[in-house]
Design brief:
By secondary structure, the chain is mainly β. Helices cover about 10% and strands about 50% of the residues.
């Protein structure tokens, strides 16, 4: 019995549903129309009633900021008011008004740039003492011993202010449930309540984050504005925080959106305050015999134009630490991320396609300038398989800016079984780094190598000791290099990789000097070939002589290939210049093509990255019925 290799696609729902516009994370800018209006009534209760003046101070309006440009702001009022503007408010004043009903607001056009708020060097923690309104407790941003203790626990051992802010923001997002059905949706609750009940909306999550930051002496303030949400695909009121970094200024942290150190361009900042309970409109009047009644503030926003795509911000890849496994195995997945920027970069990674995972598919990470880190998930391979078949699936990871990476996983009853404990041990081995503060050792190998290739493992080693280091020994197995390093010097050493087995190879590297030792390891995936496979073939067994039909199948590879040429019965049907993961192929044909040769002989020629040629053949039986008598005679006479 022939074994057919099926493509199995198992999907995890995206962290955000792909419906309409999901988000604007990967756009360079966004031009918006933002409008606000409100009304109030000064109802005179008798003939003696009078109004000397009434003043509406609106503190909720767009102003120029680091990434916000106000292109147009038109104030409006009815009846006509005397309008003044400063950094804190738009003031609408009516003197001796005759009317009872008042209307005010603005129309504006703004442009928001997707600019990361640059922190390009470490800001030491704890900060030098700062005393102002943004380090003190307020009515809703209160601080109690429990909040202070949790913040101190999260900050323990950290000497980097950005890392502290990121850890606290990540903890709040993970541990406080965002719930629009909670009573806090209508009545704002203080941080102490949120800490105990672990639920709230954006204001409450932000309040608790700010409380924890202030408890550590880090200035933080509340920002009110609007932002886009994929719930209803509209802009709506939103709250987030800004954290003060000495010499860098105010850096935004939106705990609700998980944007811990940057904001997508749909965020429009309208107000900052020490407390979230600060009203957006304050009224003042002098009158006699009058009843005052205000209505809610209405705010709307709409997109006018989009900027360009910002492109990939980090280099990353995903690969399974094991492959060719048995059903029910636990497969550890490793995502390696390198920050291409010269500044700190917060990121979110989501496993968007995979078998079942042992944990949530979303993780956040903070990368220092040029830093490389890894994230790990564990996938559970299905138990339900046919013994006569081999199976193939792929995993996909997507970052916050919508760049993606994929890898392949294969399994069958003949594969090796891996338990959850074994998977965890593989993760620990793959990410094991030990060392000292005197040496920095970073090693990297290609994502994959072919068994016929000669490749090098490249390591960079840096002297952090503040003094010259002599006879630093860097070794891989029994092969060593010896270096002399002056303070802050970096050198590169290379080791040829010998006798690697097909599959995953763990390479251990060690660097030593007197009283200094550091270890690292890398994983190298060795392939015998790009392993092109034809999956999920679909074609009829029986076709009519004049019947048009399709032959469909999926091509998949473990390594990128090029110049893929597909022939059926010696006729080229398609040419694929490059292919990295999987591709569905549809061939439209006719029963006449298979009268003389009753099989579909599928031949695929392709090359790997080194131009090495490969060949693959698959025979697909096809029987043709209702062949005209004259055609059968000609076939018998071998005329056609």
């Amino acid at each position: 019995m022939k074994k057919i290799l099926f493509l199995l696609l198992l999907f995890i729902p995206l962290a955000h549903a792909q419906e309409a516009v999901n988000d604007y994370n990967d756009y360079s800018s966004l031009e918006m129309k933002v409008s606000l209006d409100s009304q109030f009534e000064m109802l005179r209760l008798g003939n003696e009633a009078k109004v000397d003046f009434v003043l509406a101070n609106l503190s909720f309006f767009p102003q120029k900021d680091l990434n916000l440009e106000v292109e147009h702001l038109e104030k409006k009022s009815e009846p006509a008011a005397e309008i003044t503007q400063n950094q804190e408010s738009l003031s609408f004043r009516w003197d001796h008004p005759e009317k009872n009903n008042f209307y005010f607001g603005f129309d504006s056009n703004v442009k928001v740039t997707n600019a990361l708020f640059i922190v390009d060097k470490k800001v030491n923690f704890p900060l030098d003492p700062i005393e102002n309104e943004y380090t003190k407790a307020t009515a809703f941003i209160d601080i109690n011993p429990d909040i202070r203790a949790k913040a101190a626990e999260l900050a323990s051992g950290e000497d980097d202010t950005y890392a502290v802010a990121f850890k606290i923001g990540d903890w709040v997002e993970k541990n406080v449930k965002y719930d629009l059905n909670t009573l806090t949706a209508d009545v704002v609750k203080p941080s102490s309540w949120v800490f105990v009940n672990r639920e709230g909306v954006c204001d409450e999550l932000t309040n608790l984050f700010i409380s924890m930051m202030r408890s550590l002496g880090i200035p933080a303030r509340f920002v009110s504005g609007i932002a886009y949400t994929n719930v209803g695909h509209q802009w709506g009121p939103h709250g987030w925080a800004e954290v003060y970094f000495p010499e860098k200024g105010w850096i935004p942290f939106d705990v609700t959106y998980g944007q811990l150190g940057w904001l997508d361009p749909s965020h429009i900042k309208l107000k900052v305050a020490a407390d979230s309970g600060d009203s957006s409109v304050k009224y003042l009047w002098r009158a006699y015999g009058v009843k005052f009644k205000a209505q809610k503030v209405n705010i709307t926003a709409a997109s006018l134009s989009l900027g360009t795509k910002i492109g990939r911000q980090v280099d990353f890849r995903i690969h399974p630490l094991i492959n060719n496994v048995a059903p029910g195995s636990y497969v550890p997945l490793e995502v390696t991320i390198t920050n291409k920027q010269d500044h700190y970069l917060p990121e979110i990674f989501v496993i968007t396609k995979a078998p079942e995972l042992t944990e949530k598919n979303v993780k956040r990470i903070l990368l220092k300038p040029g830093e490389t880190k890894t994230l790990h998930w564990t996938a559970i391979i299905p138990n339900s398989v046919d013994p006569g078949f081999s199976y193939y699936t792929f995993v996909e990871v997507e970052d916050e800016f919508h760049s993606k990476a994929r890898a392949n996983v294969s399994y069958s009853v003949s594969g090796k079984a891996y338990s959850s404990v074994e998977a965890e041990n593989l993760i620990k081995a793959g990410s094991e780094i030990t060392g000292s503060k005197n040496l920095e050792l970073k090693c990297q190998a290609p994502d994959y190598v072919f068994s016929y290739e000669s490749v090098d493992l490249q390591c960079t080693i840096k002297n952090l000791a503040g003094r010259e280091l002599k006879n630093v020994q860097v070794c891989v197995a029994s092969e060593c290099r010896y270096l002399n390093l002056i303070p802050d010097e970096t050198q590169i050493v290379k080791f040829p990789l010998h006798e690697l087995k097909t599959g995953l190879n763990k390479i251990d590297i060690a660097a030593e000097a007197p009283e200094i030792s550091i270890k690292n390891s890398v994983l190298v995936n060795v392939l015998a070939s790009p392993d092109l496979i034809v999956n999920d073939i679909n074609a009829p067994d029986l076709v009519g002589y004049d019947t048009n039909f399709n032959i469909t199948f999926i091509l998949s590879v473990k390594a990128p290939v090029q110049d893929v040429r597909i022939n059926i019965n010696n006729h080229e049907v398609t040419d694929i210049p490059k292919m990295e993961n999987s591709k569905r192929v549809i061939v439209s044909t006719n029963g006449r093509e298979y009268v003389r040769l009753p099989d579909a002989n599928i031949t695929i020629n392709f090359k790997d990255r080194n131009e090495k040629q490969y060949h693959f053949t698959k025979i697909l039986p096809i029987k043709v019925e209702n062949v005209p008598f004259i055609i059968r005679v000609l076939l018998w006479l071998r005329v056609v």
